[in-house]
Amino acid sequence: MNSFGRIFRLTIFGESHGPFVGITIDGVPPGIKITIEDFLEDIKRRNPYLKGTTERKEFDTPQILSGVYNNYSTGAPLTIIFANQNQNSSDYNNLNFHFRPGHADFTAYVKYKGFNDPRGGGHFSGRLTLPIVAAGVVAKKIIQPTTVLANIVEIYGKNNYDEEITKAQQEKDSLGGIIQCTVKNIVSGLGEPFFDSLESLLAHAIFSIPGIKGIEFGAGFKLASMKGSQANDLFINENGKTLTNNSGGILGGISSGNDICFRVVVKPPSSIGQVQHTYNWKNKKIEPLIITGRHDVCIALRIPVIIEAITACVLSDCLLIAKAYS
Amino acid sequence: MNSFGRIFRLTIFGESHGPFVGITIDGVPPGIKITIEDFLEDIKRRNPYLKGTTERKEFDTPQILSGVYNNYSTGAPLTIIFANQNQNSSDYNNLNFHFRPGHADFTAYVKYKGFNDPRGGGHFSGRLTLPIVAAGVVAKKIIQPTTVLANIVEIYGKNNYDEEITKAQQEKDSLGGIIQCTVKNIVSGLGEPFFDSLESLLAHAIFSIPGIKGIEFGAGFKLASMKGSQANDLFINENGKTLTNNSGGILGGISSGNDICFRVVVKPPSSIGQVQHTYNWKNKKIEPLIITGRHDVCIALRIPVIIEAITACVLSDCLLIAKAYS
Amino acid sequence: MNSFGRIFRLTIFGESHGPFVGITIDGVPPGIKITIEDFLEDIKRRNPYLKGTTERKEFDTPQILSGVYNNYSTGAPLTIIFANQNQNSSDYNNLNFHFRPGHADFTAYVKYKGFNDPRGGGHFSGRLTLPIVAAGVVAKKIIQPTTVLANIVEIYGKNNYDEEITKAQQEKDSLGGIIQCTVKNIVSGLGEPFFDSLESLLAHAIFSIPGIKGIEFGAGFKLASMKGSQANDLFINENGKTLTNNSGGILGGISSGNDICFRVVVKPPSSIGQVQHTYNWKNKKIEPLIITGRHDVCIALRIPVIIEAITACVLSDCLLIAKAYS
Amino acid sequence: MNSFGRIFRLTIFGESHGPFVGITIDGVPPGIKITIEDFLEDIKRRNPYLKGTTERKEFDTPQILSGVYNNYSTGAPLTIIFANQNQNSSDYNNLNFHFRPGHADFTAYVKYKGFNDPRGGGHFSGRLTLPIVAAGVVAKKIIQPTTVLANIVEIYGKNNYDEEITKAQQEKDSLGGIIQCTVKNIVSGLGEPFFDSLESLLAHAIFSIPGIKGIEFGAGFKLASMKGSQANDLFINENGKTLTNNSGGILGGISSGNDICFRVVVKPPSSIGQVQHTYNWKNKKIEPLIITGRHDVCIALRIPVIIEAITACVLSDCLLIAKAYS
Q1: For the stretch C294-319, what's the b/e string if a residue is b when 16 or more beta carbons lie within 10 angstroms of its beta carbon?
Q2: Has residue C50 got a pLDDT over 60?
Q3: pTM for the complete prediction?
Q4: CA distance A47 to A59
Q5: Cβ of residue C325 closer than 8 Å to a chain B Cβ
Q6: Is the predicted pLDDT of residue B95 greater than 70, yes or no?
Q7: Which of A117, A316, B75, B114 could form a disulfide with C69 if both were Cys (CB 3.0 to 4.6 A apart)?
Q8: pLDDT over 70 at A92, yes or no
Q9: Beta-carbon separation of C117 and A72 below 8 A
Q10: Which CATH architecture has domain B3-325?
Q11: ipTM of the predicted structure?
Q12: CB distance from A252 to chain D under 8 Å?
């Protein structure tokens, strides 16, 4: 489904080149102050005018359709939409049946039997992360004083990556990267055993972001080369504080009160300016494909605020459920 | 919740030292041949009498409580339980309030306000993976001719690991490892955009397995150091077959028909025979803890069949939903 | 939640006096022809310019925000909104804290701690049934050749009720009524045992319509005075056709292939022009309340098309799930 | 699905003539005192040794498989099973393909393609209400001090019905009835607008009980013949207490704090001792059917405690969710 969450629940809709993208948030507690201004900073962070991202001048102002009255959440479903502007559909015309490698063009075509909106990736577009960022703004208010902070760890294997981005731009290529996320000031006891472990919920939500192909909590894949005597986080006080944090703040699927830490890998954007030789379903042969238009060199640059948003949404759900059992 | 899946849905229950662990599978198609014998091989694979695992002689024979009639699934909920035998509770007596590092003892205590069953980890025990393996046996029948195969890639960083295990046993320590899973003969079009991407569903299910701390699809974390021109999988025929498989068989959250490939990291077991200095909530100070009883040196040895099981369950759900829209 | 359905799933949002009311339909099969014109007839049926309903000239034209491309459903979430026009909020100004009897004013205030939008009932308004009618238009296409037809059985106890309505209008009063719904050409095998019996699903959905206070299937409450020998529907052919239909086409929660028949009671609208003496939370005493503005004398007149819509939505979900197991 | 509830969630399993029937309750708050003795009274009420019910001497003692430790709920899934004893399958041998009128035999056969367990109705048996009664015992503890009381209003149209039952027994016939349920001491603010109105949730749950064919809240079907000026419940104090209770304690889908009142109709049991002429799928003609074995003359006699149980389960879920937003 296009929904996620148990009692704080997101439902997302829209296509890249349709009139709007949007989200309905069900289960927002009443009485949370919400103004249009609250959204602007995180929306701006998603669209950095940096080297490496497209320089579209999108005026991404949210419109609130429901769920807010006199600047406070009402408790009823909160729907936010964003108009899609200045899109040039002709950029995508030559893609039909010459599906772009790495994109959802082929799989969407199969899944939806050719009825999907192919323009700009349609419903599979990264544009859909915009309403998620908006939901995150609401969720961050709910989880206070807990904070979520994500940042770039490396791009193309480098901590200092501006030069790599310039080079990739010149080569009409794109770059992958790694984002790290830390949740501070989090209570213990969130998450469920087994199917709704905190790792399960966070991973589920985060893998919904286009381009994410891996996630690791705490020491993550390094644990494969560790011994238990090294990996175990020894408790040092009554709050469950540990000397190390190899578990990433989650034990048995439940938050321990230590910082929740995880890292995700973002693949290099699939749209590149270079010629690619790939099967053309129309001509039934492998042919050169040139993807025109603007392309992000590195979407990892946009991802941190999206990771924060979806993480805050998962935590909102978990905190509300924990409160039900308090 | 202790449930997972949309129309093929698992609900798990039981504690390590309670009378039974079990699972209810709702949404099993009627008419699937199911006998007790079908379960034995996978159950045995979960309990390898290898170096590195405990040598409990558990007679883990499933009892089918419902949902099977004359050796065929009826379509009604299928419940399978396993008796817990020969458990020695006294092994765990000294753990109270001197919570074991790396385990869920502390977080379960907080979450359940001290009412959790602490014996052997209670509901958080790895013993709960036994009913998951049983559910996997049913799911593997449903997804035919699709196959799921998981195996050990490395233990403590080595492909050839028997010696490492012997050494760790002698050191009363434990080892982590990496498991790889491959799904072959899978149709394209499974999974949903955004919140129910195939990566989301698989990761959600797999992180419910105790000890898993990371997952990566296709080229995974290597994508962080790749360029788009390297990472993109070029299509080579009308079935969507690609030259490479860096995407792990999933594009835009939807299966592409190429093999689904992912790897997971299994942490070293937290129960080790060495003395650990960790906070004792009773005495309010850091004290040496000795965990008695038998311990797995490396649970990664048991994990492949569990990964296969949960993967087959996710795919069963996706295949049934895809059929609804066929 | 403000969502309903398992794989064909509705999420509703909006307030009476907010900018829009709307609905997101997830799980629509791709390839269904959908144009704005398709919606107009049912929308008009919901707003009959009859005696007994308010004569607002609302131009309720749906706007499709997503999920339709080139006049066909894409398979992605389909969002439809309706602008709220020509509303006069001042009609409702004197209602604050002098909560209207029979309305959700008091309960919404309690539930949402005073943050609910009180204008025109806010999210609890009958206006929210407009997007449900729109969803029904889509659902009716999905369930073809099955048809759903609802009509008025009686108003204020009379089959011939125009005179009663005129009288009630003059008395500034309102009237209740009964609606009957019949589903024809339905396959057998829909619904689930126990918790998702077809009666359960239909009742759940139908009680979401404001003003419905009872539902009975087949012979309904008359069964209380019947013997088994009278009530049992004897089978007469291999399709399961029965001589009588006291079960309303549902046996053991599952459709039998006979017409599904049920009746619902619609309460008289709670907004009446007469003075009502009811507690005023502001003055802390019982005081006369006069509700100004236009009021429906009998909302039962509007309800049939809404019942049809929600019934078609439930059946769409059931049919898709049945197809998953076909 | 065979599950119900959002955070207090039931999953039911079992067949009439299988080894066990049972239920898993997920989301039970930890720390609730639970002993086997707690269940006995309600279980006994479900099986009245009265005229009109079968006199099976079933020793229906619950076995707790999980979720209770030292007589307190742990917070983990609570599974309760009941052994099926002394069943005589031969009673049902002649029913194959001569499906019993009024029963789920035909619809279950269609839905499950002939793989359903037909013995005693299989999964569709009234025996499945036994685990629901057990879940109700747990739920009644959770909702304290709220109480739920259901009782028989009439059998075959009579308040004083013992004579009718004797007569029906002699005639080898069966009788329908009406049950009323009242929830006292309930807080206001439970339930959700639209799809999870309290009427929706209660009706959904109650229609899962075999034999229920109608439900009405408050004045119910009488509202069809009422005017708004009669039907409106005028508020008389600051707690929302009303002069009348035609709304059944629910306004806009949300509890008002007044008693929740509803009535349900129970059909006459479909198994009767009289000969019935009904289609035989084997012989392809209408033939006399004789159903041997013991039959309840009136299952309405057993239903009150089941209604109470399922009502308490719905309220547990609503109360926990309300607490999440408190």
Answers
A1: ebbbbbbbbbbbbbbbbbbbbbbbbb
A2: no
A3: 0.97
A4: 10
A5: yes
A6: no
A7: A117
A8: no
A9: no
A10: 4-Layer Sandwich (3.60)
A11: 0.96
A12: no
